[in-house]
Amino acid sequence: MGLLEALAAVLTHEAELATLREHPARLRHRYGLSDAELAMLAGASPAGFRVTGESVRSKLVQKVTACLPATAAELKAHHPELLDGFAAATVRRPRPGEGVVDSGEAGQLVTWIDGRVPAPLVDFARYELLCGQLAGDRRAAQAAGEPALAPDGPVRGIPGVSPTVRTASFDHDVTAEVPPSRLPARHTSILLQRRWGEPAVRVYRINDATAALLSRCDGTRTVAEVIAAVGADSDQVTGMLTRFTAAGVLNLAPDRY
Fold first, then answer.
1. How many CB atoms lie within 10 A of CB 222?
2. pLDDT class of 30 with cuts at 50, 70, 90
3. Residue 192 has what pLDDT?
4. pTM, 2 dp
5. Of residues 130, 114, 117, the one with CA closest to residue 76
6. How confident is the model at residue 160 (pLDDT cuts 50, 70, 90)?
7. Is the pLDDT of residue 114 over 80?
8. How far apart are alpha carbons 148 and 95 in whole angstroms?
9. What values do phi and psi take at 41, rounded to 5?
């Protein structure tokens, strides 16, 4: 605790602002402030605190809206109090045990709404966050500009998922073209691929077998070991690995032997 935490609390909570005015010693003790720090806070006007707090909260909401446009629109339409509460809680530094684990405000919002809104909306928010993170990933963008090297014949070496790709599974169909809160309850696995052009991120539904295959391509197994781990027909798996490599979903490293 310290001055920054005290300032954030006063900016976002009327009760803390009242404590500063009516019981300053209590606020100093709560945040471990020095006399000079307390005097700095006490010298500001209540109106100034309110205006500054409103500005900070507004900018935070604008920022998460830019990252999670569909999620934010749904919250504004049906759960506006959650956005207000999120802004008030996020201005200050998260305290231990509050469950805010992502370093970005958009990730913090996804954590914040979990358990507070319908489960389909939480799944969609996670999906939208994953798309945004991939679109903004510099390494993925650089790799997207490099041509995929189609294998000359059957794949050999050690396959690994490209930096341009993310895979994820959800309890709801996040690809359904319905409002996020009304996504059908259906297990859905997806593959996201960063590409040049628009849209920057392309979304593909994949089945469980494909998801399982890609999970084995972790850069530690040879093609033969991937085939053995999947336990499927070797020709079929080899064909899938070849197609994924040609499409830039997989990269091949030299065999370790």
1. 16
2. confident
3. 97
4. 0.76
5. 117
6. very high
7. yes
8. 45
9. -70, -45
Instruction: Read off the pLDDT band of 203 (50, 70, 90).
Output: very high
CA 2 to chain centroid, in Å, comes to 29
| Own/partner long-range contacts of 92-97 (Cβ < 8 Å, ≥24 apart) | 92/4, 92/5, 92/8, 92/9, 92/12, 93/4, 93/5, 93/8
